[in-house]
Each structure stands twice: as structure tokens, then as C-alpha cells.
Amino acid sequence: MFSELTQAEIVNGAVLFATLHSDLGTHRKIGPMRILRPALVAASVVPLFIAPPVTHGAGLAVELAGVAAGLLGGLAALALTRVYRSPKTGKPVTHATWGYALLWTVVIGARAAFSYGASHWFPNQLAQWCQAHQVTGAAITDGLIFMAVLMLLTRTAGLATRATALPRAAQAQQHTLITPANVGPSR
Q1: Is the pLDDT of residue 179 over 80?
Q2: Which of 19, 79, 111, 116 has its CA 20 to 30 A from that of 13?
Q3: Angle, alpha carbons 69-125-57 (nearest 5°)
């Protein structure tokens, strides 16, 4: 099918594109497709590229490290995203700036560089490390894919959770500050 390097780069590109396309900018609506799209990406990636996960030893540790890194990365991305109600529609929206884009680009760039380096810069050293620790290349690939998918899903679940935790639009309007612009003559 695809080489492990190609698999990793496909996942990296899909995650970066889907994330920046849906999140970067202001007043990005949090609707069903915004929440569903990352789940669809994950559902399409995992069956195609994940070998049966390792269930023991250092290979399992590598895969679990990918899961942990993905969770932490997703939480960091969520911290860089503001969730609020649109003043125009009252619906949940987000605002993510270049710091958010930089986080995703650095994380995915580092994964891509590692994948490329494993094939071109340090294949012998990695092979020696894998042999010494009894880790397969598939376990490393799985760890990188788990990291990508979990970062995406953690960010998405966090957005959905924060959007549902927002006060209702009517409650938000009750808490609006009174300013000369919104005070008119009483009738």
C-alpha cells in the first residue's frame, strides 16, 4: 500500500489542513460539521494506516506516549482558542489566531521532520534503538498517528464542551453592560 513515511505525511497533511481550515480566524461557527469533520478524518485515517496496536513492552509505551502527546497538544490548542457567543447570532463561535496556527504547524512539522528523518537522516540509529528496545517501526508510526488524531479529537471535544457550557443567548444578553449606546428613552 503506502510506505510508513507516506502514511505519516498523509495524516500530517490531512490534520493540518482540516484544523486550520475550520479553526483559524474569528467568529468561526461551532456547528455539527465543525464537530463531525475531525471525527470523520480520524475515522478515515485510523483504519487505513494503523497496524494492529502493540499490546505489550516498549512498543506499547511508544504508542501510549503518542496518545499522551496528542492529549496534551489538543489541550494546548484548546487553550489558544477563545469560545464565545457571536454578538450577531448568539450562537457559539471561536476565535483562533496565529499562535494557534503556529502551535499546529510546529507540532505537525516536528512529526513530519521525524518521519522524514527516520527514513533519510537517522535510519541506522533509529533501527538500532528499535532493536535494542524491541520496538517495531509500526509501533512508532502508530504512536505518531495516535498523536495526530488525539490532538485533533481532544481539541474538538473541548470546543464542543466549551460551546455547550456557554450561557444561553438570553442569559448573555441580560449580563450585557449598560452603555450610553444601548440606553434609550423609556416608554
Answers
A1: no
A2: 79
A3: 50
